[in-house]
Amino acid sequence: MAALLSKFRISHLLAWLLLWVSLTVEAEIAIIVHPENPVQALSERDIKKLFLGRIRMFPGTTDAPIVVDQPAGTAVHSVFYSGFINMEPEKLKRYRASYLFSGQGMLPLTVDDALQVRDYVASHPGAIGYVNAEIVDDSVKVVFKVSDR
Amino acid sequence: MQSIVMQNTAMNENWMASVTDVTRFAKRLCLGMSLNAWLLVASSAQAEMMDQFHFSGFATLGAGKLYESEAHFIDYHEAWSFKSDTILGGQIQFQASDRWAVTGQVVARGFNFDNKSDFEPVLEWLFTSYQLTPETRVRAGRLRTPFYLYSESLEIGYSYPWVRPPVDAYSFLLSPLSHFDGADVTATFDAGFADIDVQVFAGVTESEYFDFNIQINTMLGANLVARWQDVTFRYGATFVDTDASSVALQPLIDGFNQFAVIDPIFAEIASSHKTESEWFQYHGLGIQWEYQRWTFLSEQYAIIGPGKDFSNDAFGWYISVSRQIGAFVPYAVVGYYRNKFSDEIENLIEQSKLIVVPGAIPSLDSLRQVDASVAQGFNEHGNTYTAGVRYDFLANAALKLEVEYFDSTAQLRGNISGSASQDAWLTTVVIDVVF
After folding, report:
1. Domains plus CATH for chain A?
2. What is the ipTM of this complex?
3. pLDDT digits 0-9 by tens, B201-253
4. Does A103 touch chain B (CB under 8 A)?
């Protein structure tokens, strides 16, 4: 009985945790780069252009960005593109297809989740990604927080 | 596509590991340090190189049925057929460095406007690009001609709501100019209130359109795209030095040349059946407004010919309205198109009637009559009305169902007989995928 109760409590706790995480995701997204990236901060406009492939080097540098994306359909992806980039995920798919096949350039690299984004950015000097701000550590550098704007 | 890239990476790492094992084994066999080092460098360089390659593709599987036996539209007819909108494309990109990249794209179409056989692959893109600054890029090689908003992604059905971009603007007459060999420069500016992209390009091309041979001696163009918040504005102008001739017109040319001994006007009529190094202008204006989940889009264009010889002026527009409702995008399009053929041939024929009066030479009379009606046949206009729905049934695939009504005197298939008004209904179903 006690075991059942604790199981219930754990699942209850997990549900609350998930909800809290998803709310946090909506509340705070951090744009991260490699610590050695000379860029200290990026403007909202620059970030939009980088993630839409409309500029192909970090501003003020000659370094090409490796844009790292999270899978379409995840909460953080929807919030980032709908709320911040101002492009609904359905429209983003069409935009990316047009971009890829009309000689504009390459698409972002998609990894499985936020932890993989952080690890990829931490190990690739040219990488840029967006993650839930909670998971940011010293291995990466934050150049913008969506809640800052 | 990205998953393929990731898989490639994983495969390369495994492969690299096994190569490393082999080199360890080689070392044990005392093959020497230098060879070992060389092998290691070569294998990791090769693995990195594979990372720099990106393979992708797109396809459209289409089926359509036309409810009118007299009209033709890209080879659709009264029975369901599957080739006209069916397209397959493959692309390779190679990122050589932060600045350099090479892109190649091949497209195979089920229906072509020239003498190619069905699904014969056409090299539509093959260029190297060099990033000069974060905002400026140069491309050189084979590029798509950026006449209008969708010209560079004309066959990427997945990237737009419709079955195909509105035919009133994305006229098949543009198909011989769909790509060119040359270069372009693109720059993006931050103008405070708006983001502005400017593209200038120059090149040459040659191709066929049914029985016409078309040679572009010089093509020069520029376009400007301005984006502010939910509005996108585009203006493009292209200037094209054109040679065009048709074997089908040769009997008329020969016919008039026979009478050149009577008066030079007949040689003049004959030579008016060709376009030789004459400049055509293509202007396109586009505006798109996104309001909540609605998209309003309109483009208008004008093609201005030299006003003489075998040339035309054309004008057209379309208005498209669509709305995203979950995975569905219902849309409606209205379009108009008018082609005005140069009246030089007809004027010369009328003038020649003062020199050799009708009735004097019966064979000349019939020649003049046939030629005037051929010239008239190029004057055409029409409206189209389209309604359809797109349904995204997979992350990388969309199904579209569309009905289009043509009220047109246009020679939709390029035949030059008859110009009576033709009504036709076309139903099309397509599946667009990207991979």
Report:
1. 28-148 (3.40.190.10)
2. 0.84
3. 999 999 888 888 999 999 999 999 999 989 999 999 999 999 999 888 999 99
4. yes
